[in-house]
Amino acid sequence: MKRSNTTQITGIFRQQHAGFTLVELIAVIVILGIVSLGVTNFMGNSTQMYVDTAERDDILAKSRYTVERLNRAIRYALPNSIRVAANKPPGQDVNAHCLEFFPIEWSTFYLSIATGADSPITTIEGPDMVSALDAVASGYDDTNELAHYVVVYPTDPSQVYVDEAELIDDDGRIVRVQDVRDASRDGLKEVEFQNAISFDEESTVERFYIVSDPISYCLVLESGSYNLYLLSDYGILPTQVADVDELQITYGATKVLMAQNLTNDISKITNGQLNNNRPFDEAPFRVEDSRLQRNAIVHTLLMFERNDEVVVFNNEIHMQNSP
Q1: How far apart are CA 95 and CA 225, in angstroms?
Q2: Tens of pLDDT along 231-245?
Q3: Is residue 157 part of a domain?
Q4: What is the span of the domain harbouring residue 205?
Q5: What is the number of domains present in the chain?
Q6: Which of 43, 59, 270, 320 is the most exposed place for a label (fewest CB within 10 A)?
Q7: Are 146 and 75 in a shared domain?
């Protein structure tokens, strides 16, 4: 009996410690592999969705900032100073497209000016200047007055984009500012010119503007992609220059990158218009001149791309100011 009991207990012990069969191990490995693959795909897809969303938000934020800044600048451009040009090197497609205008720094109404056959004057008075951009509360900064100009009744870009000889002539519509100071009467400012001038015409609403040097927004083809730049500090050029390298090297322009990865196809643009009659005009800048019924209109079309996703901003900007 004792031997029989020992054999029975040993058999039970061996049954309790039996291992997995090969089939069971393979089945477990396959199941774990399937589960791991599913978890990995789920985590990978979730991560990619997060990355895509973050990149989409990033391009939207950057593009909206660029477009809003551009729109605000255009709204406060000197009336009838906006012009558009394309740069086309000999034997090549267009590689740059630029929008140029004079930014308004201050505007007010004059009490009287000299026009036509009147004797040229060196000063003009008006109510205390109000910043068109609401950027300076303390008044006009006359520490850099030579970078500013008085303009009266501009009706065409050619009247303000003049060479140095016309700028210091005794007639015209634009003259360089020498100084801005308090007038003898309270509430008025006196603007002194660098030279005496008799303006060509009076403004219909007796308005004059103080503007700074022109600026240009240029969409430029670089290394197979388009970038948007802001160029400034190159002075007044009678003929618009859309060659960014020439503006920098020849005229000392300052170039600031505004946006990258734009996809507008400007290769066939000629002075703002596409010359192959495509139904979809990808020109980034187009200008409709002012009419008797309305001010000028500027059309901007900027197409931003990232990871094959394109965000299009198509704006129609009505000029708020009139001569």
Answers
A1: 10
A2: 999 999 999 999 999
A3: yes
A4: 104-212
A5: 2
A6: 43
A7: no
